[in-house]
Design the sequence.
């Protein structure tokens, strides 16, 4: 491990609804990081030989730990990053689901694949690589980690988590879950370090690969560092997902889903719908329904079951969003509802809808990470597809139509890692997840995600 002076600033857990500092942690120093890397290397030497059935049993046990402690883990997420309690509980459940999915299907995904050649026997074998570094964001503090960790551990790799610095308690809780489930010490470790340590971790010879979920600048940095050391990386970056509504769509259902799709996780999701592209023939009806539903939302304490929208995770995120909205309005965008930060303690922003958005404004081309919807009107299908693709991002897309010909074109021509027809974009352990263009490369989840971090070995025997 390269020697770098540890920062003196502590890693803090701050409640975004109140601004109260909940707990602080001293970042790991050089010696502590070295101990953890050495432990990861030793753990991999054993874990890679653990029978698949035993790996599966431990993942099932991790799912049981999550289910038993779901209320506690959900409250921790709500307190540390501000998601509503209902969404936090759903996140815990989804983490248990992904553990069970790979426990049940992992052995099949990793089974040798025979290939007919001129040899007596030839096949493809899938073998683990070693310690994989996961650089994870704060917005889904459990799910983002478990969707990496479950397939990685099932494949025989070990994990090193560099989590976002504002969710240290979640990061430590996840390590404790895997230990309680029976994974040996070192199979999954949390590294409480700042972002400035990432480059040294990637450079360390014991780290064999890296996965990152985060911003485009973070992706560029990690990809550059991984490439410099010839290490595999998977990047899931930002998104400016379109939500296309055509004349034949079920407008009531589309509008109802649009609210959830935009405001999931208080609007702080890469795959949240952000640009609502609506055919002119139904635009007035859709706009009216969307404004009515936004107006009915309750903003407040994320632990209150009646709350629909909680705070943004940090004051910086709030300031950035507010600047993007004001800049867009100054260039000609029209505020249909909201458009401002809310007074009082905490990082609260009013649910907002912008219309008449000019191409040179932030709301047109940038990712808005918060409860702000950008509404566009288009003549029809051709214009909708052009506008949907008029973005540097390509993570997900939701499209609404009942016309089979329109559906075929939407699925074929929208440039994104996933296209959901008549439903909101979501991640599912059964389906590969990832993006194209500046939304990154590589895949998570499904068999494809598991095979990102294995050695795909050809065996040929005469």
Sequence:
């Amino acid at each position: 491990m390269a020697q770098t002076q540890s920062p003196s600033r502590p890693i803090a857990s701050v409640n975004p609804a109140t601004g109260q500092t909940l707990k602080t942690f001293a970042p790991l120093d050089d010696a502590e990081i070295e101990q953890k890397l050495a432990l990861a290397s030793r753990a991999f030497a054993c874990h890679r030989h653990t029978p698949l059935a035993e790996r599966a049993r431990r993942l099932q046990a991790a799912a049981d730990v999550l289910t038993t402690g779901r209320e506690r883990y959900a409250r921790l997420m709500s307190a540390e990053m501000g998601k509503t309690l209902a969404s936090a509980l759903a996140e815990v459940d989804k983490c248990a689901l992904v553990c069970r999915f790979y426990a049940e299907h992992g052995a099949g995904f990793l089974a040798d694949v025979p290939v007919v050649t001129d040899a007596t026997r030839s096949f493809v074998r899938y073998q683990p690589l070693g310690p994989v570094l996961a650089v994870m964001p704060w917005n889904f503090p459990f799910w983002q980690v478990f969707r990496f960790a479950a397939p990685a551990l099932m494949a025989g790799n070990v994990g090193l988590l560099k989590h976002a610095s504002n969710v240290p308690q979640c990061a430590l809780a996840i390590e404790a879950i895997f230990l309680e489930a029976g994974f040996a010490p070192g199979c999954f470790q949390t590294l409480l370090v700042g972002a400035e340590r990432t480059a040294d971790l990637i450079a360390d010879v014991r780290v064999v690969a890296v996965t990152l979920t985060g911003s485009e600048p973070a992706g560029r940095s990690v990809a550059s560092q991984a490439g410099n050391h010839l290490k595999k990386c998977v990047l899931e970056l930002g998104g400016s997902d379109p939500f296309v509504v055509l004349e034949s769509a079920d407008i009531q259902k589309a509008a109802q889903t649009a609210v959830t799709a935009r405001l999931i996780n208080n609007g702080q999701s890469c795959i949240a719908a952000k640009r609502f592209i609506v055919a002119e023939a139904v635009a007035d009806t859709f706009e009216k329904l969307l404004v009515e539903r936004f107006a009915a939302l309750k903003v407040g304490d994320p632990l209150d079951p009646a709350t629909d929208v909680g705070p943004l995770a940090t004051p910086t995120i709030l300031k950035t969003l507010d600047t993007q909205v004001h800049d867009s309005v100054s260039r000609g965008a029209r505020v249909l509802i909201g458009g401002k930060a809310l007074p009082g303690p905490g990082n609260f922003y009013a649910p907002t809808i912008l219309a008449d958005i000019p191409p040179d404004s932030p709301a047109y081309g940038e990712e808005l990470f918060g409860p702000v919807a950008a509404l566009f009107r288009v003549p029809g299908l051709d214009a909708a597809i052009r506008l949907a693709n008029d973005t540097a991002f390509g993570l997900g897309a939701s499209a609404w139509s009942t016309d089979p010909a329109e559906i075929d074109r939407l699925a074929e021509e929208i440039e994104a890692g996933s296209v959901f027809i008549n439903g909101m974009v979501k991640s599912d352990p059964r389906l590969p997840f990832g993006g194209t263009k500046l939304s990154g490369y590589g895949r998570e989840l499904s068999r494809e995600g598991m095979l990102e971090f294995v050695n795909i070995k050809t065996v040929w025997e005469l």
Q: What stands out?
A: Residues 85-110 form the longest helix (26 residues). Residues 11-237+439-461 form a domain with the Aldehyde Dehydrogenase; Chain A, domain 1 fold (CATH 3.40.605.10). The chain has two domains: 11-237+439-461, 241-428.
